[in-house]
Write a structure and sequence with these properties.
The protein contains no helices and eleven strands. It is mostly beta strands.
């Protein structure tokens, strides 16, 4: 089951940085965390970032491009999200998402339906 390494709420001031980690623990088979989504209060879940199996390709939501960086460690079945220059509008519940490795190691998946497992989510609150 995909879980956050450090679950729970996170509070940071605007302009600050946070690093989220999500590891697939237990007998997860061929599932690997490869993406992040978030849901703000009163909003629908939205895509944040996704990375290919190879790590050579990544997609980001326009709202976070240039501020967030996604990376992964295949051996540890872990995906990271480095969040810099945080804004109050980044306040949301962040989820990592896992799927099986694609035959094309450079493929990047961004749709919720592309993922088979989800993390429990961690609240990130950015204060002004």
């Amino acid at each position: 089951q995909v879980q956050l390494v450090e679950p729970g709420g996170r509070l940071v001031q605007a302009g600050g940085s946070l690093r989220l980690s999500c590891a697939a623990s237990g007998r997860t088979g061929s599932l690997y965390p490869m993406a992040w989504f978030r849901r703000a209060a009163g909003k629908e879940r939205e895509f944040v970032a996704s990375i290919s199996w190879s790590g050579g390709s990544a997609n980001y939501a326009t709202s976070v491009t240039g501020r967030f960086t996604i990376s992964r460690d295949s051996a540890k079945k872990t995906v990271y999200l480095q969040m810099n220059s945080l804004k109050p509008e980044d306040t949301a519940l962040y989820y990592c998402a896992a799927r099986t490795r694609n035959y094309n190691s450079n493929s990047v998946y961004v749709a919720p339906s592309d993922f088979a497992s989800w993390g429990q989510g961690t609240q990130v609150t950015v204060s002004s």
